[in-house]
Amino acid sequence: MLTRVMVTAGVLTILLGCSHSDSDSDSGPIPVVATTGMIADAVRNIGGDYVQVETLMGPGVDPHRYTPTPGDLSRLATARLVVYNGLHLEGKMADVLAHGSTRTLAITSQLQPTTDLRSAEADGLTHDPHVWFDVALWSRCVETIRDTLATLDPAHAEDYRTNCARYQRQLAELDAEVRQKVDSIPKPRRILVTSHDAFGYFGRAYGLEVHGLQGVSTAAETPLSEVQELARFLGTRQIPAVFGETSVPPKGLQKVLDTVKAEYNREVQLIGGDQALYSDALGPAGSAGGTYIGMVRHNITIIADALNRP
Ligand SMILES: [Zn+2]
Fold first, then answer.
1. DSSP element (H, E) containing 211
2. Which among 23, 85, 114, 238 could bridge 89 via Cys, Cβ 3.0 to 4.6 Å?
């Protein structure tokens, strides 16, 4: 396995040997590769017609478990900019991202470890990578895209600034909308239980208690003790519903709910199917979760409806 990763990274290095340099003055849009849909959406909003964005991880794809395909490697090699989340979200791509010579940007690189980031030491990571669920924090992250595009393409720097400011105004409105929806949920019911710990920043920013069956990564299997611990929590608290995620199979949460029913004689609803939350991946283009703003809006609507149900 180790050898394969090293070979993969080696291949990429060779492929990237012929990539463009920053001084290329190609006409036509700048080819950009983004790892997740949330990042691709931000690049499109800020880059407008001056960028051509490809997304590596499409709808329903789990970034923690994602391994790059040979097609991805050639896409990465022909890009002028690769934008990724960082903080080990793309755990299995770390070697590939580190070994290339194409310009790369980790969108979380400007955040302060002590004040902005949540620790994830319990999960064997330094920090929790799911920063996009604090909308105000994400709004700061997208400024790195503006600045990098302005460096790559100074002729359009002013457009990137204008587009970024407009996108940030939309994000500020979204942030206020989420706060309003959370306010509609009675305080004792502000508890969000999901398949994995993707919503830590969301809970911190908007005042919900958050529990994930799996830790901040889905890369390892869930031990039975974790299933029992979450079942005990649900069995002893008045929690009406738990939430599936579009990029994580619901079987783990279903096992918890079966245990709650068997051992505590309580029915807890599993919100899944087309109501599942978008956590680590956007939905298909044109769907409710086809954009970052749509994703957050879908999630908070589903969460508020389910937790407000009598
Ligand atoms: Zn995740």
1. strand 209-214
2. 85
